[in-house]
Amino acid sequence: MSLYLEYVKEIETRAKELGLSPKPIDGADLTAEIIEQIKDTDNEHREDSLKFFIYNTLPGTTGAAGVKAAFLKEIILGESVVAEITPTFAFELLSHMKGGPSVEVLLDLALSDNAEVSAPAAEVLKTQVFLYEADTEQLEKAYKAGNAVAKDILESYANAEFFTKLPDIPETIDVVTYIAGEGDISTDLLSPATAAFSRSDREYHGQSMISPEAQAEITALREAHPGKKVMLIAEKGTMGVGSSRMSGVNNVALWAGEQASPYVPFVNFAPVVAGTNGISPIFLTTVGVTGGIGLDLNNWVKKVDADGNPVRDEDGDIILEQVYSVDTGTVLTINTKEKKLYNGDKELTDVSAAFTPQKVEFMKAGGSYAIVFGKKLQTFAAATLGIEAPQVYALSKEVSHEGQGLTAVEKIFNKNAVGVSSKSALHAGSDVRVKINIVGSQDTTGLMTSQELESMAATVISPIVDGAYQSGCHTASVWDSKAQANTPRLMEFMNKFGLVTARDPKGVYPPMTDVIHKVLNDITVDDWSIIIGGDSHTRMSKGVAFGADSGTVGLALATGEASMPIPESVKVTFKGDMKDYMDFRDVVHATQAQMLKQFGGDNVFQGRIIEVHIGTLLSDQAFTFTDWTAEMKAKASICISQDETLIESLEISKSRIQIMIDKGMEIETQMLHNLIALADKRIAEIKSGENPALAPDNNAKYYAEVEVDLDKINEPMIADPDVNNEDVSKRYTHDNINPVSFYEGKKKVDLGFVGSCMVHKGDIQIIAQMLRNIEEQEGKVEFKAPLVVAPPTYNIVDEMKAEGDWEILKKYSGFEFDDANPKSVARTQYENIMYLERPGCNLCMGNQEKAEKGDTVMATSTRLFQGRVVADSPEKKGESLLASTPVVVLSTILGRTPTIEEYKNAVKGIKLTDFAPPLKELSTEPSATSTISFLQ
């Protein structure tokens, strides 16, 4: 059977079983067959082939794009004649293909001696921005050879006409509201983890957003209000918390946005989203990638008494009052010039933050990529012509306060800043381009990242990126047909692009399904680094790391840069002594609880950097804190460590990178060897005193300061989703944290999970030690609820096997993973045994393994969102309670939450955490090293 007939068969199956349109074409061979059928005027499939060729092939650097561009060139040159595709239309199609093969064709035509095609090709080229070195070198060479067309194109680029000739955004935008949910809206609602396998198939994945009923309601609103955009709202909450941002925004755009090109299916842009408390920072970045609008509504405020103090209800919760209604179906107007939101003539709120000059540029250009590439192209053209580039784009926002020291994040941004004109150090509020040192792509969003790279015509990783890794952790637990179809294809693409990959596309080294954040934490070998990763838990204990959407990850891989504002910081320090029966996870929970109490329920961490003065904790343990900051809604976290602690952490990183090399994971560019060399360089700098461990200046300015009192942490803490709270907006938040005594040893636990990025080797050792303790006290260990254990890395398993601890785990397990025979079906039911699962995300991801519906799960995970780890049953809501490893283990042995006495007995003699606050303040005197010398 021909590829075309196979495609037709797939179309029929797809329509019958899924109710979907034909899948967009990305393959060269199928496109070539379609072209042959177009050339054959008598072919029975010619009419459909024309439609597929024009409207259903993917642009950029896909195989289909290469073949399509070549055929369009034939038509333009008259070598092929297609009545339905004139040369003029062929140029139109090339203009929508975004780069790569299409730009190569346009350059060849524009720089040719054929005046008939040269002029129109040049005019199309002037609208393109996705040019790479090979393209610009060709232009530069032609210009220096005296080619007038090349000069004309370069002059257009120098004036950024690809941007200036675009229409401005409308002065007013009418929207009709749709309340997508009450309270914080997780991106899991917009792009469920259970549908992660389909994220690169945009139409298919779009069916998973919220619910079929919601999709029908949004469609009805669009039809009832032509000319108005549907604005999705998180009522009394924040929009877009959690991960899966790109697929979440893609889904919103699919249902409520605009088609980006008539010739590219299911790629939509310009969605409008809003929240009472605004938009999650990473989600807002993704909205910018698609040229969308994200509004902070402020439509509910705290009720205050006559003295201005918040009024609380009988449960002690602050009462909110509605300022104005955004009920579904309300028609509102965004005035982009005044930067106000209106209901008719009534002004509702200021939305200036949504319409900064930079964000308006994203909207005008149809997304942030075009701005990033446009700026680089303008700079190149001006330099080639030997002129100064005219000021077209909004100036980088450069904020500097004389006499004010720098926080840690301000120091890192100053060191990595690119294209800064200021001679003074930059402070929070500045908006700059920065060099990205480390980039991570994860497997359930990786295919989307590869699509983004293809769409921006990128073919190789930027040489200025120090380290980049493609994980396999989110699909580690079940090697099913979906994983078998997607993962090898992803690994092959990323390996070819220049990343170290978890799986070898050639099968030379065994699968390494280590959790991506753990690997990134190891390959970050400089505390002055900036890290970008395709997951909200990209939160390193060295450097500053930002979780990002697939597009921003792609941009960082392709350019080695990102544009972002320098965030404000909140300083977190500790006092007192940590009790020997407490786990560091309890310190993490207590930090959030004490912060909320200190600031009257306001989350001062939201959207800011948490600068945690961790001091004595090595990177693995400190990662527990930084990882949790995603749930604190912080933008990122920075660990301030002592010199000797940082050196030891870097030595550990070196050893783990060497293990990756020993396993055969090194790539042609010697990326892993180079990282070890960078680690050695950094260690030498610290030891010599040339550049000590990163620390803020002692006169740095913070948004707020939080001091955590360790003396007040007397018992284990549990983050509870509070699923039955009458106020829907207070369910499934990470702010409801209870001591274990709150449950009086009576809350039934159906399943326990120790795993995810929140645990390290010490946690798995704790399980082994607890089993020995209980065996000694009771004679044997019996589980009254299942316990799922998924170590985050293979190193942990290997080391525990060598040290003997794995034997006690095997003794009480009823299942142990086998890489030679991985599971092909996800587990849906559990026995009261311990399951030793393959390293990776497992239950925390919720896309393969899940608890039984309606279960109460006690987990070390990070996610307590509805339906993530456990779905609801008709009889009972699923609950995902988050706690430390010893609490989880004991809860499964008891089948319920433990009392404090039971807990203390179970952990007797176990050193849970070796942590004490730094003996001296970790800061530096302001000096020249914190100002201009870091600017590049």
Automatic annotation (TrEMBL):
Protein name, as recorded: Bifunctional aconitate hydratase 2/2-methylisocitrate dehydratase
NCBIfam families, alphabetized: PRK09238.1 (NF006690)
Biological classification of the source: Bacteria, Pseudomonadati, Pseudomonadota, Gammaproteobacteria, Thiotrichales
Superkingdom to which the source organism belongs: Bacteria
The Aconitase B HEAT-like domain, residue ranges: 6-163
UniProt domain Aconitase/3-isopropylmalate dehydratase large subunit alpha/beta/alpha: residue ranges: 410-895
Pfam family, any one: Aconitase_2_N
Gene Ontology cellular-component terms listed: cytosol
GO terms under biological process: propionate catabolic process, 2-methylcitrate cycle; tricarboxylic acid cycle
Domain Aconitase B swivel: residue ranges: 179-406
UniProt GO MF annotations: 2-methylisocitrate dehydratase activity; 4 iron, 4 sulfur cluster binding; aconitate hydratase activity; metal ion binding
Keywords assigned: Iron, Iron-sulfur, Metal-binding
